[in-house]
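Handout, page 2. Input:
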Amino acid sequence: MSLRSAIFSTTSLVFLATSASADVSAKDIWTDWQNYMAGFGYSVDGTETMSGNTLNVSDLNMSIPIPEAGGNFELSLENVDFVENGDGTVNLVFPETMPMTFVALGPEGEAVSGALNYTMSNMDMRASGDLSKIQYDYSADQIGIVLTELVVDGDTLASDALEVKFSSNGLSGQSIMEPGALRKIVQTMALGATEYTLKFTDIESDAIVNFAGSMAALNMQGDSVVPISFDPENVNAALESGFAVDGNISYTGSNTAFSIIGGGDEIKGSSSAETASIGVTMNKDALGYSGSSTGVNFNMNGNQVPLPIVAGLGELAFNILIPVAKSEAPSDFALGVTLGDFVTSDQLWSMFDPGNILPRDPATVSFDLTGKAKLLFDFFDPTQMAAVENGEAMPAELNAITLRNLRVAAAGAELTGTGDFTFDNNDLESFGGFPKPTGGIDVGLVGGNGLMDKLVQMGLLPQEQAMGARMMMGLFTRPGEGPDSLTTKVEINEQGHVLANGQRIQ
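Output:
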């Protein structure tokens, strides 16, 4: 598993906008810039000329190999000026257009190379502070990336066969760095109206594929710790050396449209979200991801789609946290999902409910799991991971798990639940090789009988199966507080007995 593929193509761009390293001396800034990029595996070359208060670096080239793609990535700048202002600050002046190139192998071994232009309009960047803590403030009227050339096995794609571009207005941001053996970086960045386009012609089918999107505003923030030198190919060693990141990207007013047209077929659609965010945490102990969106809408139609697909979600969210380091002590883990207030069109409802028998209220599925587990291997160690995947080693011991916010609401019924269990890994006999659990779960069901009646009426549930289900519910549940409501508490005690509402069932 590699960090390089995740950072090689963005590090140089982010660095240009957020990191050089500063002092009152332009020379110090340039030197630290080289050291910082070299720590990520970049080679940095340029010709230095000092004139008055300005250090000019011409013919600047930054390149990094991409072993997993069999190629490399390069960023070339004709000139970069480091201008000493005489007040302890330094301005960094970049050309408005910066060419980038890449060389790689395609998925079927084909040789792929390309060129892009990275543009910045009225870019202003100033470094202040001292060598122990440097602050960079920057802004630009507009930034953009445009693919200018793509060559596959020696053939250059026509300009109308592939179009890739990105543009954003109103860039502003700040980066604070503390250089050292472990470089600490705190960053914030904001973008205004943003647009992107991907359009290409499929070589095999001649179908034209088009994606176009926009965002009203985008914000990024992150804290990271980067060792002065580490191998991005060896994630385990990088984390042990202190590499860590905690970041978040959020945006508002997202809209995307897509189409696939060719061979007499046509599919079109769009999606949108009022707000969205994506977060990541990574350090030597844990790896976490999270995401959420509100006001999500999606639609798709075409001559290959029997009915227009229309769907919406009031909320879409997830979170996951896993330990990544072998440890003698239990570590936290988590998994959460929310699909809130799902709605679809009456046309789709009518496919399986033409009589409009089921309530068509918004549906929700959500749960949150947290717990403790002892990881028995290092997650990012390839050798240890291979042993786990081959069944040669146990991955983890489960110690405890907590369920919160279980909710499944649809078609007039609602299921809820909470629970807690601990696990005895020294007892693998009571439950057939599984660690012995102790604890309980409380479950409530409202509208269950009414839903079964409607399913019987629709012919989707045979009467005898509904009767059997009601008998089972009568045995293991008790009436709740309201009409058509049931509750149950399932427990596993210290003796390993399974009980439902105090009644032993195993």
